[in-house]
Design a protein that fits this description.
Layout (H helix, E strand, L loop, with lengths): L3 E10 L2 E11 L4 E5 L6 H8 L6 E6 L2 E2 L5 H7 E4 L11 H6 L14 H13 L15 H14 L4 E5 L7 H15 L4 E6 L2 H7 L2 E6 L2 E6 L1 H4 L2 H8 L1 E8 L2 E9 L4
Parallel strand pairs: 3-8, 3-9, 6-7, 7-8
Antiparallel strand pairs: 1-2, 1-4, 4-5, 9-10, 11-12
């Protein structure tokens, strides 16, 4: 059973096709990086997979058509970390993380015992214990990002879709986040994350889907996707490739001259 399956998905926005005839599936235990230049359709595709964009084609979560699932069922199957990190209300950080448990709350008001552990673990994993009682709207950009990641983790879904989750984080917290995402795989969970940082994508993802102009250009292991030819054709850059501490290193160096 796939956690997510997209079949011939297309999204039209502003009179143009932003995503066109895309198909892929996500199995358990994968960390998939969704990469491509600005405007390639990455965020639009993620939203389509959640039912947040009108899309043609078929999208299934755990073999169930997305259109046939209730909001609660969707919330138990997939969590979403949006690109925007705005927090408008002065609720505490702890309360904001607790909101990730909404899909699991019972109609009769019964206690969510599993939620206590999930909330505490998410707060600890993101290193925000000292922020727990602070108003969430007073935090820095990086702190807000970590709190919203904790909320998504507290939802304890098999699949997490994240839109640029490392944006705004310093290098230590970026690496820490990548390690958290990789740790989820051992429990059979999967992560699909749009990413602009190709060095993080190369080193931490188990698979990459490269998108350009609304189409999939490559879908394979990082070393087979992040090739010199693909980087020139899709990003228009030259890059440095190496190995360090058992993993790949990629550094964009210059614009591709076409010569």
């Amino acid at each position: 059973m796939n956690l997510l399956e997209a079949k011939a998905v297309s999204v039209r926005l502003g009179g143009r096709n932003v995503v066109e005839n895309i198909s892929f599936s996500i199995a358990a235990g994968e960390f998939v990086g969704l990469i491509g230049p600005n405007g390639a359709g990455k965020s639009t595709l993620l939203k389509a997979c959640l039912g947040l964009n009108n899309a043609s084609g078929n999208i299934l979560l755990q073999d169930t058509p997305l259109a046939e699932m209730s909001a609660q069922a969707r919330g138990r199957a997939v969590s979403y970390l949006p690109q925007e990190h705005e927090i408008a209300w002065p609720v505490s950080v702890r309360h904001l993380v607790e909101l990730g448990r909404q899909p699991w709350l019972k109609a009769d008001g019964g206690r969510d015992f599993a939620g206590r552990h999930a909330i505490a673990r998410a707060i600890a994993r993101l290193g925000i214990t000292e922020l727990a009682e602070r108003p969430a709207n007073t935090l820095s950009g990086g702190e807000r990002a970590r709190v919203l990641i904790a909320r998504a983790l507290a939802q304890t879904t098999p699949l997490l879709l994240a839109d640029e989750p490392a944006a705004g984080l310093d290098p230590a917290h970026q690496i820490g986040l990548m390690k958290i995402f990789r740790s989820l795989l051992s429990d059979g969970h999967s992560v699909v994350s749009s990413m602009h940082d190709l060095s993080l994508a190369a080193r931490w993802c188990t698979r990459l889907i490269m998108i350009d102009k609304g189409h999939i250009v490559a879908d394979d292991r990082p070393e087979n996707v992040l090739t010199a030819d693909n980087l020139r054709a899709v990003y228009g850059v030259e890059a440095f490739f190496a190995e360090a501490k058992g993993g790949p290193v990629l550094l964009p160096l210059d614009l591709y001259s076409g010569v």
